[in-house]
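Q: What would this chain look like folded?
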Amino acid sequence: MCRWAAYIGQAIFLEEIVSRPGHSLIQQSHCATECLSAINADGFGLAWYGERAEPGQYRDVMPAWSDPNLKSLTAQVKSHLFLAHVRASTGTATSRNNCHPFVVGRWSFMHNGQIGGYDRFRRCAEMLIPDELYAHRKGATDSEALFLSALGDGLDDDPCAALERATARFEALARTKGEAPHVRLTAAFSDGKRLYAVRYATDDHAPTLYHRWSERRSGRAVVSEPLERDEGEWQMIPAGSFCTFEGESVTIRDFRPGRLAAAA
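A: My prediction, written as C-alpha cells:
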C-alpha cells in the first residue's frame, strides 16, 4: 500500500513534512512500518497551493528517495496547504499519469488502499465518470476513477456525501464483480481552502491514518504514519470517519458508504 502526508496551516517549506522528519514521507518510501509493503517505489507526487486557486503539481515515476529534484523542490517551495504521496502499485503500470495526487481545477486528491478485483470491472467503473469529466482521465488507476466519480457526484457541494456516494458505487461493483477486500481506503483531498481526509474499509483492516497539530509550525499534519517515532501526540483517526481540517479546527463525522452500497 502507498504512504502519504498532507498539511494545512501556516506556510512552511514542504521539506518539513516530506524529507526532514526522522520518519518523513521519503523515509517511509523505503522503510514504512505500518503497511504490508515497506517499499513504496512506484513513483511519487506533490500538489501544493500558493497564490492561485489551482494547485501546483509535480509527479514522477522514480522512487522518492532517488530523485534529487524532489529534495531541491521541497527545500525551496513554501505552502500553507499541500499533499504528498509515495506509491506502491496494486496492479496498474508505473507511469506518471498513475502517480498521485491527481488534480482537476482547484481540487487535488490522493488515495491509499485498494478496491478489490478492480481489473474485473474497470470498464463499469469508467462508466461512472461523467462525460464532462472524462477528458481528465489520464491514467488507469482505481484512485483516479474514484476521484473523478466523486467530482461528478457533487464534491463541490458536499465533499463527504459525494465521496460516500462514489465509494458506495465502487463498493457495489467490487461485491458483485470483484473480490474481497472490497474497499480499503484512506484518502486526502482539498479545494485549496480546506483539507479533507477519510478512513474506511469494508473489513477490519482500514489503512492507518493519524493527525497532529504542531504549535511550532502553527499547522496540522495528516499522515499514514507518524513522522517522528518518539512523538506521543499523534491521534489516530477512527475507521469509518470523514475529517474536515480548517485552521486549528477538526470536524469528524461518520463515513458509511456501505449502507448505500447495500441499497444499490
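Residues 3-263 form a domain with the Glutamine Phosphoribosylpyrophosphate, subunit 1, domain 1 fold (CATH 3.60.20.10).
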